[in-house]
Amino acid sequence: MVDVFFIERDPYAPIRHVYPVSQVLYQGKSQFQEIMVLESPFFGKVLVLDGVAQCDERFEYIYHEFMAHVPLYAHPNPQDVLIIGGGDGGVLREVLKHPEVKRAVLVDIDKEVIEVSKRFFPTMSVAFQDPRVLVLNEDGYKYIQDCEKEFDVIIVDSTDPVGFAHVLTTEEFFRYVYNALKDDGIYVGQTESLHYHIEIVRRVQKSLHKVFPIVDMYTAVIPGYAGYWWTMSVGSKVHDPREPKRPVSVQAKLYSEDMHRYAFLPKSFYQKVLSGEYNP
Amino acid sequence: MVDVFFIERDPYAPIRHVYPVSQVLYQGKSQFQEIMVLESPFFGKVLVLDGVAQCDERFEYIYHEFMAHVPLYAHPNPQDVLIIGGGDGGVLREVLKHPEVKRAVLVDIDKEVIEVSKRFFPTMSVAFQDPRVLVLNEDGYKYIQDCEKEFDVIIVDSTDPVGFAHVLTTEEFFRYVYNALKDDGIYVGQTESLHYHIEIVRRVQKSLHKVFPIVDMYTAVIPGYAGYWWTMSVGSKVHDPREPKRPVSVQAKLYSEDMHRYAFLPKSFYQKVLSGEYNP
């Protein structure tokens, strides 16, 4: 019988998730956050940062596939990819499935997250061994200021936009992202849920609209993230992100060519979200 | 400060939802189930049956709009509608927004749910006053056995298929539903989630395939239902449920003509769900 529970404390969610826990595998504190690894009977291992579940072995593929494959397939030839955050390695693993990728730079401020992932999540952290990868334990916000037209795709896989990750959703940051992208580059970032965080979604979208000529948004239903109907915001210089630019051949569980298109909301509803006509 | 919590006990979910509670407004026990009404700071009033949240004032529109408008718009002229379950009145309210509807029969075995809804959820239960409505407190499984080609649309808005609602997802029941539908009738039922309950989804779909010539499935993301990516299963005698048959003019928050089509999964992914190729 399971008697131990992990009660999530997500500062942005109006409810809490309670996970039955079979074992607490790791508890530590880095310079930046509390890190915990749990074993759950149903979800497998769960990575928890500052009390919020980030990913679990059972469902991590959903978030990671859609964060990586949508922008990479929206680009005709993604050779240079930057990931800010993503220390668990899940997005990196998916990015490296594209043979077009010659260089993947992962900038995560917290190297202990990477170490914990290498130790406890071998299926997620497998990509760190790839010779195309450069890992930097720096502040992504500072790192990007020195990049100019370097990347085809930039993916921001941060924690929730509260505390030290907040700056990664500001207009100022998006200007740095724009400059760091090549002339036909694409940005994607996780931008909270339509159900519980629509004001945040709107704020980020507004900031993106000030910087990028093409702005869009797609969704995936993430069971571990309270709010569930999760948004990924896109800024693009040239390419329409709704259309894959190459034949979709990647090995994925949920992502496919059809699911790429399906991930994008109907434009009529997307407009209602932006304008404020739709509010839950 | 909020110090009281409702900890859900959903027998079909691997996690529990915890709602901060500002007030417990009602606790009772009917012949069939425990009934509770909570007030939550974020969700408004929440209806809880046997420890499982059924609907809340903030998000109830999602489930109710999609349970009602998809089958009703998939039908060219829905005059006679049967709702089994749905004692809170939410689906009924949406059904009655269609001027084509001449008669709506609601059969809920538990009349105390209806009484509680009338008392605590005036915006959901408003439809019970409509002269087109006939409410019967009977066993829907028995009621439907005496119907023959009576209804254009049958909506089964039951609790989870455990305990006394289980029979409402069996092949035998679907044969009664088929007989109770007119020659171009459409059935819709709530059939759990893709994330946590895919075996149930598959079982129901298989039973439907034995009875109806056209079987399909659509989804909506329901925050209060653990599993979130909720499925509604469709059995149809003639009409393709993916296409609205009349101009969409209903006043709704999330449902629209575009969202009707969007609710249906790409066929390639739907096939993977059915075949078992997709498993979370």
From TrEMBL, chains A, B:
PROSITE patterns: PABS_1, PABS_2. Pathway: Amine and polyamine biosynthesis; spermidine biosynthesis; spermidine from putrescine: step 1/1. S-methyl-5'-thioadenosine binds at Q33, D108, D139, G140. Belongs to the spermidine/spermine synthase family. It catalyses: S-adenosyl 3-(methylsulfanyl)propylamine + putrescine = S-methyl-5'-thioadenosine + spermidine + H(+). This is Polyamine aminopropyltransferase. Homodimer or homotetramer. The active site is at D157 (proton acceptor). Gene3D superfamilies: Spermidine synthase, tetramerisation domain (2.30.140.10), Vaccinia Virus protein VP39 (3.40.50.150). PANTHER family: SPERMIDINE SYNTHASE, SPERMIDINE/SPERMINE SYNTHASE. GO terms for biological process: spermidine biosynthetic process. Spermidine binds at H64, D88, D157, S158, T159, D160. Catalyzes the irreversible transfer of a propylamine group from the amino donor S-adenosylmethioninamine (decarboxy-AdoMet) to putrescine (1,4-diaminobutane) to yield spermidine. Its EC number is 2.5.1.16. Keywords: Cytoplasm, Polyamine biosynthesis, Spermidine biosynthesis, Transferase. GO terms for molecular function: spermidine synthase activity. GO terms for cellular component: cytosol. Pfam families: Spermine_synt_N (PF17284), Spermine_synth (PF01564). Residues 3-237 form the PABS domain.
